[in-house]
Write a structure and sequence with these properties.
alpha+beta; tt1808, chain A; 6-stranded mixed β-sheet; two-stranded antiparallel sheet; 12 strands; about 35% helix
C-alpha cells in the first residue's frame, strides 16, 4: 500500500495519528511527517510497519485492500491478482487481459455488459444498489431545478451516460452524476471531454476505483470538481481541483450538511440532510 493509499484510508476511517502510531509502533512525530509528506521518502522499515497496521485494521473491518499483495508500481494503478476470466467481479477490479483495449473494443462488447474503459483496460461495474440509485436521482433533481430556475446553460446527466474523458480511444467512463457546461462536448452518443462536475457514489466494490484511479483521471482530464459520496459512512468528500488545493486534500462533509456546488460559486447547495431523510430506511 502506498502512502497516498494510506492517506485516503486514514480520511475514510477517521484514524488519528495517535492510533496509527500505537498500532504500527512508529513514533507519532514520524507518522505526522510521513502523512504530511514532510518526509517524502520514508525508511522501508517505517513503510512496512505502517502497511502492516493498516492492513490489520482493514481486515478487521472486512475491507480487504486490493493492492496489498502487489508491488508499489502496480498498486498505484490498482493491478489485481490474475484469474482465468477476463473480468474480475467488482468495479474496483482491473481486467486481467493485459492487451490494450480501445473505445472500439468497448463499443463492440455484448449488449448489457457493464464495464468502464480506463487507460486501455476494462473495469467491471457492479449493478447499482437501490440506495445508490436513489441518491444519484435526488442529487440530479437538485441540479436540474437549479439550472432551470437560473436559465443556465449547464446540463446535468446521470449514469449510464458514456464519457470519452480524454478525447482519445483509451478511456470511456460512466460517472454516477455529472454536469457539463460546455455544450460543444455533448453529442447524441456521448460526452466528449471532461465534465465540469463529477459525482461518484461509493460502494464496497468500487471504492478503490473511485477514490484512487478515477480521482486521478478526472483531475488530469480537467474535471473542475469531484464529489465522492459514501452512504455507509454518511460522508461526502469534495475535491475542488480548480483551487489547486492538492489531490489528497478534500473538504469533508456529512449527511447533515448543505454542500455548496463550487462550479456555481456555491449558489446551488445540495441538502444532504434532506437526502438522508429520503434514504435513511435503506441505511
Amino acid at each position: 500500500m502506498t502512502i497516498d493509499d494510506m492517506i485516503i484510508k486514514k480520511k475514510q476511517y477517521g484514524l488519528s495519528y495517535d492510533y496509527i502510531s500505537e498500532k504500527s509502533g512508529v513514533p507519532v512525530s514520524t507518522v505526522q511527517k510521513v502523512f504530511s509528506k514532510t518526509t517524502p521518502t520514508p525508511r522501508r522499515e517505517t513503510l512496512e510497519a505502517l502497511n502492516k497496521a493498516f492492513n490489520e485494521y482493514l481486515n478487521s473491518n472486512g475491507d480487504i485492500y486490493l493492492g496489498q499483495e502487489e508491488d508499489e508500481e502496480n498498486a498505484e494503478i490498482g493491478m489485481v491478482r490474475e484469474s482465468e476470466t477476463e473480468y474480475n467481479s467488482g468495479t474496483s477490479a482491473l481486467a486481467v487481459d493485459q492487451s490494450e483495449k480501445t473505445v472500439g473494443d468497448y463499443m463492440n462488447l455484448p449488449e448489457g455488459t457493464r464495464v468502464e474503459l480506463i487507460d486501455g483496460r476494462f473495469y467491471d461495474m457492479a449493478a447499482p444498489t437501490t440506495i445508490h440509485q436513489k441518491i444519484s436521482s435526488l442529487i440530479n433533481t437538485e441540479f436540474e431545478i437549479f439550472v432551470k430556475t437560473n436559465n443556465g446553460k449547464c446540463v446535468p446527466f446521470v449514469a449510464p451516460t458514456d464519457v470519452q474523458l480524454d478525447r482519445d480511444d483509451k478511456t470511456m467512463v460512466q460517472p454516477d452524476v455529472m454536469v457539463v457546461c460546455d455544450r460543444n462536448k455533448i453529442t447524441k452518443a456521448r460526452i466528449v471531454g471532461a465534465p465540469d462536475l463529477v459525482i461518484e457514489i461509493l460502494s464496497e466494490s468500487n471504492w478503490y476505483t473511485d477514490i484512487v484511479i478515477k480521482h486521478r483521471k478526472y483531475k488530469e482530464a480537467g474535471v473542475r470538481e469531484y464529489w465522492v459520496v459514501m452512504p455507509e459512512k454518511q460522508v461526502v468528500l469534495v475535491y475542488n481541483f480548480d483551487k489547486k488545493s492538492g489531490t489528497l486534500d478534500p473538504i469533508e462533509y456529512t449527511f447533515k450538511d448543505k454542500i455548496p456546488v463550487g462550479i456555481w460559486d456555491g449558489k446551488c447547495k445540495v441538502d444532504f440532510n434532506e437526502i438522508y431523510e429520503n434514504v435513511s430506511f435503506l441505511l
